[in-house]
Amino acid sequence: MTSAAPAARTGRKRDHTRDPEILDATLDVLAETGYDGMTIDQVAARAKAGKATLYRRWPSKAELVIDAVACMKREALSPDALPDTGTLRGDLVAMIKPPSIEDAERKLRIMTGVVSMLSKQPHLREAVQAAMVEPRAAANRFLLQRAIRRGEIRPDCDVDTLALLSASMVCYRTLIQQLPVDREFLLVVIDEILLPAVRRIDA
Predict the structure, then answer these.
(1) pLDDT tens across 129-147, in order?
(2) Is 47 domain-assigned?
């Protein structure tokens, strides 16, 4: 009788508990050195993590940067974190977080690094859009659909297009104009563009 073959070894399970620290270190290094000057070795040193761990998890610098940007967006825009003030304007305004000057400058440098990455690897555009634009668009879709259920805004408004409005304008302002996104800018987008587009005719 032939003995059964030994079970295949699955190997040690990867530990992802340090991913947030590594991704935050990635953003710090990207902001400080730019995309061209950044290396995975630098990130490993900043995060006090083994280089082999990073290379197994993120085979390329671009993948590491995209994951870091996506993580930054997910934390701020997860469904559980979205406000419910009772009005669409209240919800949108409540999502505006007052950044410090240092935080605003850091984000601008991060976005500059992303632009540099895309100039050399344009095939990553879809991945960057999914990481940078879609989280905000998904949050906006949720808020718009909830406002429709309240009867607050037009039920026939183009939710998918309108959900991209603020996200697209924010990306244009940071990536192309190289300007910080402040409260005044976001209030103009909300009050002068988005809300008039969804206002009920009988309101």
Answers:
(1) 888 888 889 999 999 999 9
(2) no
Q: What is the pLDDT of residues 4-53, one digit of tens each?
A: 444 444 444 555 678 899 999 999 999 999 999 999 999 999 999 988 98
CATH of the domain at 145: 1.10.357.10
Q: What is the dihedral of CA 17, 20, 23, 28, to 10 degrees?
A: -130
Q: How many distinct structural domains can be found in the chain? A: 1
Q: What type of residue is 67?
A: D
Which domain does 129 fall in, by range? Answer: 69-198
CA distance 186 to 140: 13
Query: Is residue 150 situated within a structural domain?
Result: yes
Q: Is the Cβ–Cβ distance between 87 and 43 less than 8 Å?
A: no
User: Element (H or E) spanning 30, and its range?
Assistant: helix 19-37
Quote the CA–CA distance of 138 and 40 in Å, as a whole number: 30
**Cα 51 from Cα 55, distance rounded (Å):** 6
